[in-house]
UniProtKB/TrEMBL annotation:
<dbReference type="Pfam" id="PF13286">
    <property type="entry name" value="HD_assoc"/>
</dbReference>
<comment type="similarity">
    <text>Belongs to the dGTPase family. Type 2 subfamily.</text>
</comment>
<dbReference type="InterPro" id="IPR050135">
    <property type="entry name" value="dGTPase-like"/>
</dbReference>
<dbReference type="InterPro" id="IPR026875">
    <property type="entry name" value="PHydrolase_assoc_dom"/>
</dbReference>
<feature type="region of interest" description="Disordered">
    <location>
        <begin position="1"/>
        <end position="29"/>
    </location>
</feature>
<dbReference type="InterPro" id="IPR023023">
    <property type="entry name" value="dNTPase_2"/>
</dbReference>
<dbReference type="Pfam" id="PF01966">
    <property type="entry name" value="HD"/>
</dbReference>
<dbReference type="InterPro" id="IPR006261">
    <property type="entry name" value="dGTPase"/>
</dbReference>
<dbReference type="InterPro" id="IPR003607">
    <property type="entry name" value="HD/PDEase_dom"/>
</dbReference>
<keyword id="KW-0378">Hydrolase</keyword>
<feature type="domain" description="HD">
    <location>
        <begin position="63"/>
        <end position="199"/>
    </location>
</feature>
<protein>
    <recommendedName>
        <fullName>Deoxyguanosinetriphosphate triphosphohydrolase-like protein</fullName>
    </recommendedName>
</protein>
<dbReference type="InterPro" id="IPR006674">
    <property type="entry name" value="HD_domain"/>
</dbReference>
C-alpha cells in the first residue's frame, strides 16, 4: 500500500490500551477491521433502523448496509488521496455500533431517560462498545482497538465528557477536543463519507417507500441537475424504467460528490503544506466538499429532513419506537432482575442504557411485548 506522507501509518500507530504482539500477516488497522466485523455489535446492525423500521420492508437500508456503503465510499476516496484504506474501513464499520434500536428516535428517548445519569450519545456509546461492552477476549473487555480507530469512532464529544475521558486515559481519544486539534485525515474522510452515503441512499429508500417521488425531488437542485443529465443521455428511462432512472441519478450524484471531495481535499492539503499525520492534527479540517457542493448537500439534507424524516408516516412509527425505549427503561429500572445477569452493573441506570442500546429493533419489540403484554406496532395498524 503506497501511503501519502500525511496518511496514518499502521507501523506508527499510537498503539492499543493493552499491548499485544503484532499479527504476522495483517497490519494493525486490518486487525482492527477484522475484530469489528467479527463482533456481536456489528452483527446486530443488520436489524437496526436507518430510516425505515426493519419490519417495513426487506430492501430498505439498515445500520449494517449503511455502514458497508460508508466503508465502500470511504475506501474509494482514500485510495485516490493516498490515505489508509484499512483505517477508513475500520472506522466506517464501527461508527454506528452504539446506535440504539429505532434510529434517532430511540437515541433521543434513551438520552431523555438518562438525564441525571450522564445522558446518552451514540458516538460515545460506539466507543464504549469497542472499549468495554464486547466480551470476546480473556485478558480484557472490549476489542482493544488502536488509538487511531477509536479516535475516528468518537467524532463528537462535549468538553465535560472530554475532560472525563482525558482523566481516565491521559493522552487518549478525548484529548483532541480539549486541545482543539483535528483527528486523522482518515477519520475526517469517514465522517464525510457517512454524510454522502445517507443523503444519497435515503433518497432511494424514500422513493422506494412511496413517501418521496422523483417529481418531488426535482425541487432539490442537486437531484435535478443529475436527473437532467440522465434525461439527456437516456430520454425514455424516466417514464419507461423509473427504478433504473433513479439508480442512475443517484450513481451520478455519488460519483460527483466523491470527485468533489477528492479535488477539494487535494487543494486543501497542498495549501496547508502538511507533511505528516501529526501535522494534520494542528490544522483546520482538510477533508471537505467545495463550497458549492457543501451548499448543495446542505439543501438536500434540509429537504430530506422536512419531507422524509419528518413525514407523518415515519414519525408515527418512530414515535412507537421512542415509546418502547422509554417503557423498556422504566421496566428494567423498576425490576433489575429482568435484565440478564451480565447486564446488572453497579451503575444501574447505565447498565440498563447499555442493554437497551445494544438491542435490535425486533428484539426490543419482543422484550417490550414480554414485559408489557402488548404489541404497539400491531395496535397502530
Amino acid at each position: 500500500m503506497d501511503l501519502a506522507p500525511y496518511a496514518s501509518d499502521p507501523a506508527r500507530t499510537r498503539g492499543r490500551r493493552q499491548a499485544e504482539t503484532p499479527a504476522p500477516t495483517r497490519t494493525e488497522f486490518q486487525r482492527d477491521r477484522d475484530r469489528i466485523v467479527h463482533s456481536s455489535a456489528f452483527r446486530r446492525l443488520v436489524y437496526k433502523t436507518q430510516v425505515f423500521l426493519n419490519h417495513e420492508g426487506d430492501l430498505f437500508r439498515t445500520r449494517l448496509t449503511h455502514s458497508l456503503e460508508v466503508a465502500q465510499l470511504g475506501r474509494s476516496i482514500a485510495r485516490s488521496l493516498g490515505l489508509n484504506e484499512d483505517l477508513v474501513e475500520a472506522v466506517a464499520l464501527a461508527h454506528d455500533l452504539g446506535h440504539t434500536p429505532f434510529g434517532h428516535a430511540g437515541q433521543d428517548a434513551l438520552d431523555e431517560c438518562m438525564q441525571g445519569h450522564g445522558g446518552f450519545e451514540h458516538n460515545l456509546q460506539s466507543l464504549w462498545v469497542v472499549d468495554r461492552l464486547e466480551h470476546r477476549y480473556p485478558e480484557w473487555d472490549g476489542l482493544n482497538l488502536c488509538f487511531e480507530t477509536r479516535e475516528g469512532i468518537l467524532k463528537r464529544c462535549p468538553l465535560a465528557l472530554a475532560e472525563r475521558l482525558e482523566a481516565e486515559e491521559p493522552g487518549g481519544v478525548g484529548g483532541r477536543f480539549l486541545r482543539g486539534q483535528q483527528p486523522s485525515l482518515e477519520a475526517q474522510l469517514t465522517n464525510l463519507a457517512d454524510e454522502i452515503a445517507y443523503n444519497a441512499h435515503d433518497i432511494d429508500d424514500g422513493v422506494r417507500s412511496g413517501l418521496l417521488s422523483i417529481e418531488q425531488l426535482q425541487d432539490v437542485p442537486l437531484f435535478a441537475q443529475f436527473a437532467g443529465m440522465v434525461d439527456a443521455a437516456h430520454p425514455t428511462l424516466r417514464t419507461g424504467e423509473p427504478r433504473r432512472f433513479l439508480a442512475e441519478v443517484i450513481r451520478r450524484m455519488l460519483s460527483q460528490q466523491v470527485y468533489d471531495v477528492i479535488d477539494t481535499t487535494r487543494t486543501a492539503l497542498a495549501k496547508a503544506g502538511v507533511g505528516s499525520a501529526d501535522d494534520v492534527r494542528q490544522t483546520s479540517p482538510l477533508v471537505s466538499f467545495s463550497e458549492d457542493m457543501k451548499c448543495a448537500s446542505a439543501e438536500l439534507k434540509r429537504y430530506l429532513f422536512r419531507h422524509l424524516y419528518r413525514h407523518p408516516q415515519v414519525m408515527a412509527t418512530t414515535e412507537i419506537g421512542r415509546t418502547m425505549v422509554r417503557e423498556l427503561f422504566a421496566a428494567y429500572r423498576a425490576a433489575p432482575m429482568e435484565l440478564p445477569p451480565e447486564h446488572r452493573g453497579s451503575d444501574a441506570a447505565r447498565a440498563v442504557a447499555d442493554y437497551i442500546a445494544g438491542m435490535t429493533d425486533r428484539f426490543a419489540c419482543r422484550e417490550h411485548r414480554r414485559l408489557y403484554g402488548r404489541d404497539l406496532f400491531a395496535l397502530a395498524d
